[in-house]
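call fold(seq) -> tokens
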Amino acid sequence: MILPALFRLLYSVSVLTLTNPPAPSFIIPVTSAGKVCTLQNSFQPGFVGKGDYVIGGIFPLHYNQEMPDLNSTYRPPPVKCNGYRFDPRAFRWAQTMRLAVEEINQSPELLPNHTLGYKIFDSCAYPLTGQRAALAVLNGISEEDSPTCDGASPLLAVVGESGSAQSIVVSRILYFSSCACFTDRRKFPTFFRVIPNDDYQVGAIAQLLFRFNWTWVGLIRGDHEYGRFAVQGLIRELQGTPVCVAYQEMIPLLYNRKKALEIISMAKVVVVFSAEGEMTPFLRDYMEENITGIQWVASEAWVTASVFTGSEYDPYLGGTIGFGIRKGHISRLSDYLQTVNPRVYPDNVLVEELWEALYGCSPSKSARSQFPPCSGQESLLEQHSAYMNTTSPRVAYNVYKAVYAVAHSLHNLLLCEAGSGPFQNNSCAQSNNIFPWQVTVSLHTVTVNFDLKGDSIPYYDIINWQRGSGGNIEFINVGLFDGTKPAGEELVVQGDRIKWAGHQSEVPLSVCSASCLPGYRKAVRRGEPVCCFDCVPCDSGKISNQTIDCTVCPEDFWSNDDRTSCIPKKVEFLAYDTLGIILTVISVVGACLTIAVFTVFFYHRNTAIVRVNNSELSFFILFALTLCFLCCLVFIGEPTFWSCMLRHTAFSITFSLCISCILGKTLVVLAAFTATRPGDNIMKWLGPKQQRGIIFSSTLVQVVICAAWLIDAPPYPSRNTKYERSKIILECSVGSSLAFWCVLGYIGLQACLCFVLAFLARKLPGNFNEARFITFSMLIFCAVWLAFIPAYISSPGNYADAVESFAILASSFGLLFCLFAPKCYIILLKPEKNTKQHLMGKEKKYFPVMPFLVFLSG
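ret:
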């Protein structure tokens, strides 16, 4: 059986790929010896050229096939290629290979005294047919008289095949693919290619998607390894980027219209890894459905497919952008292609099918043809671009390079001198028995640069499909991808030259969710890709000026109402605004009223009611009340180090002075009215000096507490940003909370003592009972300050200062009105009552208060 021997042969084959699908590659086969060979089937080449050394070519001259009936009851016939799916573009590649071989044979400098031969087969873009071609191409010029089973193979290399799936099926015979799967040198040690593999292409496409902010893209691939590995590579490249894949779909290998139409585009941008043969029926069905507005991103496999340049494709494919392999120049290609016609090759079925594809007529009178007859002498014109497009050959140029690479490799082997060869013991190859593995070794020395994986340096042109003057699609170069540049600088795009889908100049938008406006953040939807999100406003204190997450403003800044920028926080303190002015006015009015009372008392200081109420203590109280009213002004304005210390100390000392005076008066009143008989010595302990001593000592205690407070932990200005995060509240920190509450507690203690003593003397006789007024004033004073404590604790910054100011003013007014309003009423409005007799209640009745009145007036 020849089949096992052939597969052993396949295992030892080496390959050089020249281009991505659907462009050619070539292989360096290494044969194994066989003893018994039986030809099981034959597969005739489309073109044959004899020579000393043979190279093969396998091209997808058809891109559709007719599957045989596989019912396992009889030997199945081979797969048939459908003629109406003939590919003139691939036929041009085959003719380019023939041209290169003829040029080499005519060259006196390359392979002198030796000739190259060729065998070119049609793979029909189908793995099984490609395998038949691979096996047939190994059998030499004549399959019936093949030396394959014995000795070295006459085949040195194979240019082809067009797809990764076909390449894998035929194992290591040939590889015409850019698939990244072939970079494994352990599995494919003799595989070479003169174009970059798809790892570079998918990286370039990922950069392109990212460059134009296409975050929602669809992926369509052919049903082969090329498409599968390319899609996997692109998804890998897109990980960690803002680009999401909307869907992945596959064009079925055995095309099915119903299945193809299920690929519904949910994204405006669609990346396609497929050959033109697979794309043709797919696109025609979509054109029938009138689906437009899609921005196609083409892989190099079809980005320069001339079959799609007709004007009928423009509404659907115009604006397509993609990466094409580097173009070159073949000077004789155009003239050579025109020499191929039915007159020169009257019996060649492929040439006949070329005429049918280009002209829609058949140059033969064969009954099999469904086309009208023609002469076969028609001239090839520019509109036959699928075959005649030689202005910027890309795939054809790589076929051309592949043939020359093999020729130069063989030339180097033939020129080898004994003792300086590249093989073991510096030996050379035998010119009459060169093995393909020897060509493999020599390939590393040719001008094509291969890396350690057998790949070439990545370089792509960026192609944009634009409408030409005649309405047809033209391929315009709008940039390049140069793999020799540093990372991030490989892609160069001339954006102003690009025409997008629908002939638009603006880059199309393809997103799952529109970008969030400034001031909003992305909220990813559960179970959906990160590109699908809702936009929610940023929280207070955070901003977003792009479509990124919200960022927190610095400590002294806050977000504006739109959450687009950070603005300085509003600084608040008890300033001279509405509230500050009200407090100032009340404070000044209170001080003026106190001074007015002081004036009235001073003017009427010799009257009975002033003398009876101890004028000296009254003046002390009025003086202290004036200071109490004025100390409220210290709480208004921006806190400073000195103002913070002055606020609490001035307030505490002035109120302590005021309460001390009232306490002295209360003691005198209580002592005077509790004397049971004239001449009791109790009053001698409460004379003017003793009263001043009580006031001084009581106030001194508060002064000592304040001094200790200022020395240990004085109040200081602070910035409160915690109570209300959008504001900075300037306030005075008390420094020592213990000292603060000690100060308030001492004032409260004095007030409570006054209240108790006055309460005990509230029922003493007389028309004017001072103890009642002191009791009532202390009751108001204590009520105000008891209400102040919770209000002060719960109020921040300027409100705390306002609460304390109102407490000071309220308690001061309470003392002023309770203690002095009745007296001023008598002095100013009821002067007839301003007598000793009236104040005693009965003019001639003896009262214990008499000694006190005499004492006060003395």
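Residues 14 and 507 are 45 Å apart (CA to CA).
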